[in-house]
Amino acid sequence: xxxxxxxxxxxTRGPDRRARxxxxxxxxxxxxxxxxxxxEGVAGLSMASLARALSIQPPSLYKxxxxxxxxxxxxxxxxxxxxxxxxxxxxxxxxxxxxxxAAGMEAAGRWAVSHxxxxxxxxxxxxxxxxxxxxxxxxxxxxxDQLRRALRDAAAAGQVHPDAASxxxxxxxxxxxFGMLSQHLANDVGSDWDHGRYTRLHHQxxxxxxxxxxxAAR
Amino acid sequence: xxxxxxxxxxxTRGPDRRARxxxxxxxxxxxxxxxxxxxEGVAGLSMASLARALSIQPPSLYKxxxxxxxxxxxxxxxxxxxxxxxxxxxxxxxxxxxxxxAAGMEAAGRWAVSHxxxxxxxxxxxxxxxxxxxxxxxxxxxxxDQLRRALRDAAAAGQVHPDAASxxxxxxxxxxxFGMLSQHLANDVGSDWDHGRYTRLHHQxxxxxxxxxxxAAR
DNA sequence: GTCTATAGGACGATAGAC
DNA sequence: GTCTATCGTCCTATAGAC
Lengths: 218, 218
Hints:
The structure is a homodimer.
Chain A: H1 13-40, H2 47-54, H3 58-61, H4 68-92, H5 98-114, H6 116-123, H7 134-156, H8 167-187, H9 202-212
Chain A binds a DNA duplex through helix 3.
């Protein structure tokens, strides 16, 4: 039997496989965490319940996440990334300007509505003691940037007033967007995007925003 | 020493005093509960921490509230009542119609911003396993009723379109209101009403609502 | 990377004496 | 209505064998 690849020249596949397997297990843990949070509430996740769901003993979990808060942080980070990716994907499929803003926000909203537990973790503060790390929070800042750039495009195209891309305009837009999502999450979870009492207001809310920042007369 | 009022004719003051003292203690418990929730998070309240704050033993608490959820329910009920009272008070000080709507919502918003912990309990779902009883939830329905009636007045006075008082109009209005409050609670707690990035949008949001439901031409 | 064992608590709630 | 005592349960996290 030849040396099986240990030592300095242990090769590239062994560690890769191990790392891949580890990532798969981490992903499985996070999936089960979401399932538990769905049943027990966002703040109701415990390492013990997570271990039961995985049919392993609690100490084994700590090989994958150093603490309960680290699980929340990774959920937060991946949730923000997925939300950002939804926004980008929606924007790519639309013409630059207000169309991109509306399409991006609709795509992000659809993502949030279909991931209500993660949305609560991202948009509210339901877990005592949890604060996302700067790294996990970064995609949220990128979302604001993306929207602001699209609003500048819209202003340049004469679709809205330049003030739409101001801090105040961004605050108005996020109020409309997260207001709709908050009302949905608190009062209308279960309805899907196209039938929700609040989510179906999406187009009207965008129109209200445009009316609030009409393009300057030329 | 005369008989101190026991027996069949024990009088009316004795029990009253006892009942009053009991209510004072309950109120003190609820005050401390809010303080703990401010420090530990809304979902971080425990009977043990409450007993420590009161310098009594945990079992004594159960003479005043039968369970931890009963504490949350009473906080929810009194919070809803206070919020309703703020709305009514604001509306009373304004002319009927949209002025009353705007003044009532501003007063309710000011109450929420100055009671952020209770506001989270009322507007979000942060406590695993807690659902308010119908009794505790009743004032929330009354708030909707009050606003809808004021919007009907506004429509009758030709200030807005009658659709403003429709289910959809109410959904839009609540989206604006709770969107502003949610954004404030999640991102800008600490700022007061007049200086908050979101709360200062109040008048603009009301104006956007009116623009969205302009009165029918006569 | 899995386990057993366990430290070391905190918690909700109840029983029963006073 | 206060206490002591306690039940039974849950928890996070670590130590150390394999």
